[in-house]
Specification:
This protein is mainly alpha-helical. Helix content is 72%, strand content 1%. It has a domain of 176 residues: MetI-like fold (Orthogonal Bundle), CATH 1.10.3720.10. It has a two-stranded antiparallel sheet with strand order 1-2. A hairpin with a 6-residue loop joins β1 and β2.
Length: 311
């Protein structure tokens, strides 16, 4: 009986080649993804190391207590003074004004989109609202300078061109999409059964929104507010253009102030000698800003875990 040899077909060859190719991709792709993740971690570590090293050199020349509790900031003018409280005061004034604008408007928008708006309206309004996040911040700054400030000056004629109030209002307008989008996502995640149960008990739509949906989505809402607060603290171009460059320890929002980010922009223009104590203030202020935003992000994560409702 004669034996016959079986010749492999072209299809079998292609299948074997494809399996080898997929096997190689299974090995290579995880390595590439790991390198991408490692790159972000290494970059973050490099930034932190740079901040710490430069800040340490700065505090070798300036006592840390004078920096933290000093009430005058004039590192570029003789006699020099390095008290950061005026910059902190200006930064938190802008942030508080922005949150007073963004949180109520953003939350109200989220409630409307989640509980009142039809699906077609939601599909139109939400993308339009989120377009605000794509507008360059320097455009917001000139919007504050050319429109918001003249409007406010009709009420307060003695207010200067550069002031904290108009800058804070526009920063609040800028972060409305963050509050609205995150809050609306949290509300949309609330099960429909909770709403139906409340309606069955005779609750109105407004009562369902405020007494059922908002408490159930509280963790996401609070986290969005904290993240918006953090975003407002780190805003640069709006406050640089509209708030002024006067580091002043004041509680009057009608006056010109300076924030930490605006000061970094001012000193980074190239006139300050590299390695000087004035140059070191960039990293000291940057480190202060980094610590504040880092703590706020930790707070947002804690709040999200602490008040999270699982269904």
């Amino acid at each position: 009986m004669r034996s016959e040899t079986i010749q492999p077909s072209k299809e079998m060859g292609k299948l074997v080649f494809k399996n080898k190719k997929n096997h190689m991709l299974d090995k290579i792709v995880p390595i590439l993804l790991f390198l991408c993740a490692a790159l972000s971690i290494v970059t973050t570590i490099g930034i932190v190391i740079t901040l710490i090293s430069e800040t340490y050199q700065f505090f070798q020349q300036v006592p840390i207590m004078d920096y933290l509790f000093g009430t005058k900031w004039s590192p570029l003018i003789t006699p020099t003074s390095f008290g950061v409280l005026p910059l902190l005061s200006g930064t938190f004034m802008i942030t508080v004004i922005a949150c007073l604008v963004a949180i109520p408007l953003g939350l109200a928008s989220a409630i409307y989109l989640s509980e009142y708006a039809p699906k077609t309206v939601r599909k139109i309004i939400k993308p339009i609202l989120e377009v605000l996040a794509g507008v360059p911040t320097i455009v917001y700054g000139y919007f504050a300078l050319s429109l918001i400030t003249p409007l406010i000056r009709t009420i307060f004629p003695d207010m200067g061109v550069f002031n904290a109030l108009s800058a804070g209002i526009v920063v609040g307008i800028m972060i409305i999409p963050m509050v609205c989008s995150l809050s609306e996502d949290a509300m949309s995640a609330v099960p429909r059964s909770l709403r139906d149960g409340a309606y069955a008990l005779g609750a109105t739509r407004f009562e369902v929104a405020l007494k059922i949906v908002v408490p159930a989505a509280l963790s996401g809402i609070v986290a969005s507010a904290v993240l918006a607060f953090s975003r407002a603290i780190g805003e640069t171009m709006i406050v640089t253009v509209a708030a002024g460059a006067t580091p002043k320890l004041t509680g009057n929002p009608l006056e010109s102030i300076q924030t930490m980010t605006a000061y970094i922009v001012q000193v980074s223009l190239g006139d300050t000698p590299h390695g000087s104590i004035e140059y070191g203030t960039i990293f000291a202020v940057g480190m202060t800003l980094f610590v504040i935003t880092f703590l706020l992000n930790i707070l947002a994560q804690y709040v999200a875990r602490r008040f999270r409702e699982e269904y």
